[in-house]
Write a structure and sequence with these properties.
The complex is a heterodimer of chains A (130) and B (246). With 130 residues, chain A is mainly alpha-helical. Chain A contains six helices and three strands. Chain A has helices at residues 7-13, 18-27, 31-43, 48-63, 68-89, 109-129; strands at residues 45-47, 93-96, 101-104. In chain A, β2 (93-96) and β3 (101-104) form a beta hairpin. In chain A, α3 crosses α4 (48-63) and α4 (48-63) packs across α5 (68-89). Chain A is globular. With 246 residues, chain B is an alpha/beta fold. Chain B has a seven-stranded mixed beta sheet, with helices on both faces. A four-stranded mixed beta sheet of chain B has the order 2-1-3-4. In chain B, α3 crosses α4. Chain B is globular and about 55 Å long. Classes of the chains: A mainly alpha (130), B alpha/beta (246). Chain A binds chain B through residues 38-39, 42-43, 50, 52-54, 56-58, 60-62, 68-69, 72, and chain B through 18, 20, 42-46, 50-54, 56, 61, 63-64, 66, 106.
Chain lengths: 130, 246
């Protein structure tokens, strides 16, 4: 395998490269993807269906969108086709679209810190916005 | 189609609740699992007030509700009584009301085998309030026995006085209510009706306003039932009640 295609390998052995940082920032730039990582950090592995329940439920109690039924299918599709591949490309999860399972990769310290920091900043921003 | 068949049709096995939050709610799990509803818990580092419950039934995702809202809805303390249609109800009543509405919205068309009177009363009040706001159309209510209607009598007097609603009340004839213009009372001697708590509002013909509550007393003051905004199902409940002699 070409090592440049596997950012996990480089991040755990070398200082965070600019490319790697960009990849992580992009992965954590969507609340949905941060929720997935937060959940997997507790559970290790989950089905796309379960992750959809978590994202829809959590989003609903934060923002109260109008129709959870409609957003469930949309969220499922977004996770399946977009968010989970983005997380997999960033080396944060292993994602198997056939079995519809996502499993957390061991997070490097910078990845873990970045996730905590961004999640916390988002939480503070939300609380102040209320 | 009888109401019983309607109930059977709605009764789908495998209603499953999953609590997502920092800690499990043992009381809720015990309360519901003792009555056949499966309650699971998955840890999620939310604020406790953000804990939520995902409801699944045989056909999959059925909705999500705040754990606090569900707890309040299931609590044995009666919901705050509020005046019909009152805009100036106290803040506490309004909050309780919102909670009821959110739970009702989530559990629409979901059959529940463990309902008790406070939940059914909260649901009935919500639908009566809807009828009040629309102000016309037909509202049919079966209270099991007319003595149960007695506790709701003033409320229905108010409902009839303030609106052009055509109200029909059904129940075993163990109490004779004073007559109210706009309210027809039907004393029935039908065992099935006596076990059922039904409420249906035809929305004055507007499908978007139709709503119905269907619950069957399983004895021991526990009910299985559901509520719905599905116009076709509401029509069936309306027809069923309209066909009752009395």
């Amino acid at each position: 395998m070409d090592p440049t295609e596997d950012p996990v390998e480089t991040s755990e052995r070398a200082p965070l490269s600019a490319d790697r940082l960009d990849g992580l920032l992009r992965a954590f730039s969507a609340e949905t993807r941060r929720m997935v990582v937060t959940y997997l950090a507790q559970h290790d592995s989950a089905s796309v269906e379960e992750l959809t329940d978590v994202v829809v439920g959590w989003s609903q109690v934060r923002d109260r969108p109008a129709d959870a039924d409609e957003s469930w299918l949309q969220t499922y599709s977004d996770l399946y086709h977009h968010h989970l591949p983005v997380l997999a490309n960033a080396g944060l999860i292993e994602y198997d679209p056939d079995t519809e399972t996502a499993t957390l990769e061991p997070l490097s310290d910078p990845a873990s810190e970045l996730h905590s920091t961004i999640t916390e900043l988002a939480r503070v921003g939300r609380d102040e916005g209320e | 189609m009888t109401v019983r068949e309607l109930l059977d049709r709605f009764e789908r096995a495998g209603l499953q609740l999953t609590v997502y939050g920092p800690e499990p709610d043992a009381a809720l799990a015990e309360r519901l699992s003792s009555e056949g509803v499966d309650v699971g818990w998955q840890v999620l580092p939310t604020a406790p007030s953000e804990s939520f419950v995902v409801i699944r039934d045989r056909s999959g995702f059925a909705g999500v509700v705040l754990l606090d809202d569900l707890r309040a809805f299931l609590s044995e303390t009666p919901t705050v009584e509020r005046e019909l249609g009152s805009e100036s109800s106290e803040a506490a009543a309004a909050r309780a009301d919102e909670r009821v509405q959110r739970v009702l919205g989530t559990f629409t068309n979901v059959p529940i085998s463990t309902l008790r009177r406070p939940q059914l009363l909260a649901t009935a009040h919500e639908f009566e309030d809807r009828a009040y706001r629309v102000g016309r159309g037909t509202l049919r209510v079966s209270f099991q026995s007319l003595s149960r209607f007695r506790a709701q009598f003033e409320r229905y007097q108010h409902l009839a006085d303030d609106t052009a609603l055509d109200i029909h009340v059904y129940g075993r004839g163990n109490w004779e209510p004073p007559s109210i213009p706009g309210v027809s009372v039907h004393a029935v001697s039908d065992d099935e009706i006596e076990r059922l708590w039904l409420l249906a509002f035809d929305g004055a013909g507007d499908d978007d306003q139709k709503c119905a509550l269907v619950a069957e007393d399983r004895g021991d003051d526990r009910f299985r039932g559901f509520w719905t905004y599905d116009a076709a199902v509401v029509d069936e409940v309306m027809d069923e009640l309209a066909a009752v002699d009395g």
